[in-house]
What does this fold into?
Amino acid sequence: MIKMTALILKTNDFESILITKAQDSWVWDTDGKKYLDCVSGTWTCNLGHKHSKVLQDMKKQMDDIIHRCMRFHTPTTLKAAEQVLNFLPNKYDKITFLNSGSEAMEFAISFARNVRDKTKILSLKDSYLGAFGVAKESSYTSTKASKLKIPYPECDSANCNCLDDFDTLIDHIMENYSSELACFVLEPIMVSGGIHKACNKFISKLCRQLQNVGVLVIANEVTTGFGRSGLRFGHQHFDINPDIVVMGKALGNGYPVSAIATRSALESKLSHSNYYYAQSHQLDPLGTAVANSVVGVFKDEQIIEKSQDKIKQFNTFFKSLSYPFIKEVRSYGMIFGIQIQPVEGKTCKELILEIKDALLEEGVLIGISLGKELLRLLPSLTITDDDLEFFKKKFVKVLDKVE
Amino acid sequence: MIKMTALILKTNDFESILITKAQDSWVWDTDGKKYLDCVSGTWTCNLGHKHSKVLQDMKKQMDDIIHRCMRFHTPTTLKAAEQVLNFLPNKYDKITFLNSGSEAMEFAISFARNVRDKTKILSLKDSYLGAFGVAKESSYTSTKASKLKIPYPECDSANCNCLDDFDTLIDHIMENYSSELACFVLEPIMVSGGIHKACNKFISKLCRQLQNVGVLVIANEVTTGFGRSGLRFGHQHFDINPDIVVMGKALGNGYPVSAIATRSALESKLSHSNYYYAQSHQLDPLGTAVANSVVGVFKDEQIIEKSQDKIKQFNTFFKSLSYPFIKEVRSYGMIFGIQIQPVEGKTCKELILEIKDALLEEGVLIGISLGKELLRLLPSLTITDDDLEFFKKKFVKVLDKVE
It folds into this structure.
């Protein structure tokens, strides 16, 4: 079967292990060996793999209707719309559902461009917006539109002096670019881009000034939404009120569904009263049933509230580590980044791959970024105490062996 | 509940009926009234809604694993890869799976641009490529890149003289554009664009000449794939051998999964050996289990072979119709377009909306295009004789009443 992996286009680096089963924070390979999944699939299963209530609701929906002609609404979709809108920290009264976070971001940018009748997109230099299109061009991974990917002060203090240095940047943007901008897209925690968070004072002032002149603020909550950053949504770390909130990943807990929430006051500004968008699966009953179920579980089981203790335990553990190759640990909620530095005889890349492989051997699956020289962990919010103990034991065992 | 529809962004025109159940070629509204779905959802359910084998395989997969970290393959994905590649009429040895047809088209174009190190895209003027990005710009719905959306002769004859008039266009393209082209994207039957099919001689010669100088030919099979056009794939209506085949819609029969098939010889030409693409759900076990199941059903149940008789029955019926407001009927496989023309006192728009609404009242759901002045039907390939009789009776009843 392993030979058949040659049939798959090499879109990224693949491991040689074949995964065949998943439950909660665990996945199993074809030999029956199990691994603690510390990346929640592809950062999506905030509720753990195959949450029983979500699985049950999904099967129930499948017995009724999976998909329908896009000209029709289904009761499931309307329930999901209300459920998701009510879950957002600010008031939004319009929503639509698509498949992927990237598609949702592309939709949001296109919406903003239409409302504003401007094309340019502002973003922070380390942010990731999407896998294709304008979102990709506005991401740190692309060299395009580089003038509009701005630096930012990084701090977590309420009494910082960040604006002393960055006020001039805000002035510069307002003077030179604001009249051409459709939107500013904020990834509240820049996870792909290295796990960074901009200063609240800077972001709040920038958003306020941009919104004063009509530039839309879009919160990219694809990765940071649904408790991942410790709060319901990542933009709650800032004193801002985004015009559009883009959701993906955790909204489907493994199922491909994404959403864009905004306000009727903005929709009414669209240059076409009918903002035509056609995609086979927009507003599909199965996808929206999953979204409805997932958000219901977040509320009913107080997932985010209960995850706070685990977040603390992880932080206490990571802060206790002292190894020459660990430069720094950065964390926001259930997002952990361990910055690696070279040691005598070993590059960052060698260290990262060695640790990743040794952990896999020990039954622990972590994320890595060779470019950002990071070990990256985004465990499920529902990780158990036993899972956490297993993780700590294995992590220390592996790090102790690195020479 | 109807009030809650105000929460949904108006991305397209919505009907006021709420759909709540689907089975085979039928859907039910919240009052229990049933409708014959003559558009297969959003042109996706070629096997009918909730095909029992697909539903069963889906639930079985859900009990094992839905989603996993994108660094890992699953046995299901590898089986689907082999299954889909074997189902294609020409030989391809590389594939990947994404969520939507639009995303797959965007991926294919990006792949072609990378292989060729050129950016321009050629397409036929009535073709539709996707809902966003470059694919959208290359669609008939956009005014961008209009020089590269070319006219074409439309014929179904093997002994046509189309090239007499269109040879110069091929020469013009080869001389002026071929060196800048990344790819030519062919939608074999242009369904959104009005149900048109270009002449085989023209397309075959164009593709041959373009491929001779290295331009990639991409078959957009999102709508036309999996028996929709009467053959397995729409590009089999032409004597061509595409470099890339893009699949969506029917591949998931209602589930959001799409695919791109190509060849290792092309992948090896990518300027980066690792063509990085990151999307939460690429190669997901659930989506690929659905694709594997769907293609299995197409083979095992000889869906396409068996649909030929129904296609004939539809054609015989449509050809028997004689109404002053019907200008022409165009059909390819299970794709039917009834071109409407104005009659005294009624515009095309009025006629189309009247017929669509009256059919809905009678329990028949059809598609329409006001822009193209078409009634459009894409029934399931599994439509039964009884369903067909119901359709014919209701259709005649409604058309007879149009004054």
Q: What stands out?
A: The two ends of chain A are 36 Å apart (CA to CA). Residues 303-320 of chain A form the longest helix (18 residues). The first strand of chain A starts at residue 19 and ends at 23. Chain A has a mean pLDDT of 96.
